[in-house]
Amino acid sequence: MPTLGEPDYYHILDVRREASPEEIKQAYHRLATRFHPDLHPNDAEAEARLRSLNQAYSVLKDPERRAHYDRWGAWGPPI
Fold it and tell me: Quick check: 12 and 6 in contact, CB under 8 A?
């Protein structure tokens, strides 16, 4: 579980902690399409949201990084 102030990658991608890799991928693509800055020019919030989505997906799509995140959170010790 993330601590206060730490990003919750599962919440960012709107998936359950038990989500399969395919569910994570589908959620990422759905949200990335929805918040892509090309669809929202001059919207800093959409750009920031896409950065968060990219970070969450980069961690949760990799089984080793996901296991590390599940154990230590986003600000845990380096891999």
Answer: no
Dist CA 46 CA 58 (whole Å): 18
Contact assessment for residue 3 and residue 24, using Cβ atoms and an 8 Å cutoff? no
Instruction: Judge whether 49 and 34 are in contact, CB under 8 Å.
Output: no
In the structure encoding, which two tokens stand for residue 61, read together? 């799509």
Write the pLDDT tens digit of every residue in 10-44. Answer: 999 999 999 999 999 999 999 999 988 888 888 88
Neighbouring C-beta atoms of residue 19, cutoff 10 Å: 17
pTM above 0.85, yes or no: yes
User: How many residues are recorded in the chain?
Assistant: 79
- Say if residue 24 is exposed, middle or buried (CB neighbours under 10 Å; 0-12, 13-18, 19+): buried
Helix then strand then coil, in percent of the chain rounded to 5, is 60, 0, 40
Structure tokens at 49: 């949201």
